[in-house]
Specification:
CATH topology of the largest domain: Clc chloride channel
Distance between the termini: 51 Å
Helix content: 55-70%
Largest sheet: 3 strands, mixed
Number of helices: 22
Strand order of the largest sheet: 1-2-3
Strand content: under 5%
Number of strands: 6
CATH superfamily of the largest domain: Clc chloride channel
Structural class: mainly alpha
CATH architecture of the largest domain: Orthogonal Bundle
């Protein structure tokens, strides 16, 4: 039997893309519904109106009574988490990542209702969260549920989940490209056409739905930015690095607070109410900390909030959000991070004005801070840069954004092993990789690693003679498997050493009688990765290598040891490259394990 035909990948991509577009349309509508529901609960809670009109709790006139509203919302969310689903707790994206890594991208259908509803209650009653994380989780749940209803693979279900998540983000911010990048960096854990194309179409579709409902204006409108000079770019790098330090501090603070709540002697259902007390008290002192606060981000980027008012907003938003999030309620992280980072960047930009030669634009500094804190906290570098551009439509900001976010990313890599998205998973023993590279085995043709000097047996050979030959340990006789050919030299199967040494065989057995099934082969121009996958799928340790033109002629044989040897050559080449950098001090070189003579 020759290699099975290549799966119709292109056809599957088309089918998945069609499904992803439908999911994206649903996610776009769900995002609009969630925002409307948040506005409805906000109007009802803070103003006593039955209205879906956009509303901000910052303009309430409740006075000290405002403290009660978040308590009510936290109590309801706690009840929903305990008796509905505990999975609604948290800020959305890490929970979706967990399902991708640990549960074959399966999300319970009930979360498509409970997550957005709990988020609307939490934010609508003053919770200082963003709606984007839960919307991403809701879109991901839609994709996952669709994938569970259809007969598709786990990888394809992951693609639909990521498509739904990207659609949720695109529908919230009108940022399709950054939504795709976020899906690649945090959900897909791969960059391949089979997943990228459906996700890209989904993000574009959801953005179209958003434009249909609310037009195509940028999410955050800011004044025209100043073209950065070389010195200004250096300043933005420094600002990005400082904000990167802040992202590390913010991330660690969140989990310190979560650990403190974990030590409380009563059920977690009541923890959100403790966080809500802080939300209410802080909201009474600074009403702008209440709710989503997307308008705060626009005001920060535009310079409408400055000085002591900006310091108060940044500090109090962090206090309110971190404690509320640590208490285990439902809400997102992006909007609070953007508020904190944008405010910190704006303050640093104003401080840089004391050095006129730098030519720092505070608006650019605020934009860099907004994106850099997310790049440092999540390490979604490209998504952070492109997001800031898409939500402001300011191309002049791209270079400062790339420089500042890269600085924040570098700082985060040096100081944190995990991120705000992966810390929970790491505590459960799940390793989340952040590096993507081409599979080495995908680049190696099978024939390059196969043994071409093949020892074959013939169907007419006597088993007793082969046993004697093996007992003499003659050259080639120690192999664990042998291709079997007929008198015409055509491949008929493979026998193993165990088959040949079976003591129950009749004394006059012939090798051809031991062949139990047609041969499972690999073509010479297939990759080593395809060979490895076929070995795993068939439960075998070796594959005869044949040509497409003559599939019954043995050209070689590839074994599991050959695959390991290929990896060994790759590692050795990488280590040799390190050894050749002799002009650097040895203390600068990172020593690979078990390699002598480095440095």
């Amino acid at each position: 039997m020759t290699s099975p035909p290549t799966p119709p990948t292109e056809r599957r991509i088309v089918v998945l893309t069609g499904i992803a577009v439908l999911i994206a349309a649903g996610a776009g509508v769900a995002a609009k519904v969630l925002i409307a529901l948040i506005d409805f609960i906000t109007n009802l809670s803070f103003f006593g109106h039955l209205s879906f009109a956009p509303a901000s709790p910052a303009t309430n006139h409740l006075g000290a009574a405002v403290v009660i509203i978040p308590l009510i919302g936290a109590f309801v969310v706690g009840l929903m988490a305990r008796f509905g689903s505990a999975a609604i707790r948290g800020h959305g994206i890490p929970e979706v990542m967990e399902r991708v890594l640990l549960n074959e991208s399966r999300i319970s259908p009930r979360l498509t209702i409970l997550k957005p509803l709990s988020t609307a209650i939490s934010i609508g009653t003053g919770g200082p969260f963003g709606a984007e994380g839960p919307i991403i989780a809701t879109g991901g749940a839609l994709g996952s549920v669709a994938g569970q209803l259809l007969r598709i693979t786990a990888d394809e279900r992951k693609t639909l989940l990521a498509a739904g998540g990207a659609a949720g983000m695109a529908a919230t911010f009108g940022s399709p490209v950054s939504a795709v990048l976020l899906a690649v960096e945090l959900l897909l854990f791969e960059y391949r056409a089979r997943s990228l194309i459906p996700v890209a179409f989904a993000a574009a579709t959801a953005t179209g739905v958003r434009f249909a409902f609310g037009g195509g204006v940028p999410m955050f409108a800011i004044p025209q930015l100043a073209q950065p000079t070389g010195l200004a770019l250096t300043a933005y790098i420094a600002i990005g690095g400082i904000v990167g330090l802040a992202s590390v501090g913010v991330t660690r603070a969140i989990f310190v607070i979560e650990d403190a709540f974990d030590r409380l002697p009563f059920h977690w259902m009541w923890w959100p109410m403790l966080g809500a007390i802080v939300v209410g008290v802080v909201g009474f002192a600074e009403p702008r900390t209440l709710g989503v606060g997307y308008d705060n981000i626009s005001h920060i980027l535009s310079g409408d909030i400055a000085g002591k008012a900006l310091v108060a907003l940044v500090v109090l938003k962090f206090v309110s959000w971190s404690i509320a999030l640590g208490s285990g309620t439902s809400g997102g992280t992006l909007a609070p991070l953007f508020t904190i980072g944008g405010g910190l960047g704006a303050l640093l930009g104003v401080a840089a004005l004391s050095v006129p030669a730098l030519h720092v634009d505070p608006h650019v500094a605020a934009l860099v801070g907004m994106a850099a804190i997310f790049a440092g906290a999540s390490r979604a570098l490209l998504a952070s840069v492109v997001f800031a551009f898409e939500t402001t439509r300011q191309p002049i900001g791209l270079l400062p954004l790339l420089a500042g976010c890269s600085a924040a990313y570098l700082i985060s890599l040096q100081l944190m092993r995990t991120t705000i998205m992966t810390e929970k998973l790491a505590r459960r023993g799940v390793r989340v990789g952040s590096d993507y590279s081409v599979d080495y085995l995908e680049q190696v043709p099978v024939i390059e690693i196969a043994t071409t000097d093949v020892v074959v047996l013939r169907t007419g050979d006597a088993v007793e003679e082969i046993r004697d030959w093996m007992a003499e340990r003659a050259p080639g006789s120690t192999h664990q498997g042998f291709p079997v050919i007929d008198e015409a030299g055509a491949l008929v199967g493979v026998v193993t050493r165990r088959n040949l040494l079976d003591l129950d065989l009749p004394i006059d057995s012939r090798v051809g009688e031991l062949v139990r099934q047609p041969p499972i082969t690999i073509f010479e121009d297939d990759t080593a990765r395809q060979a490895a996958d076929r070995m795993v799928h068939e439960g075998i340790g070796r594959l005869p290598v044949v040509s497409r033109s003559e599939p019954r002629t043995v050209l070689g044989i590839v074994t599991r040891s050959d695959l390991l040897d290929a990896h060994a050559r790759r590692l050795d080449a990488a280590h040799r490259a390190v050894r050749h950098i002799e002009f650097l001090p040895s203390s600068w070189l990172r020593r690979p394990p078990n390699v002598d003579g480095v440095g």
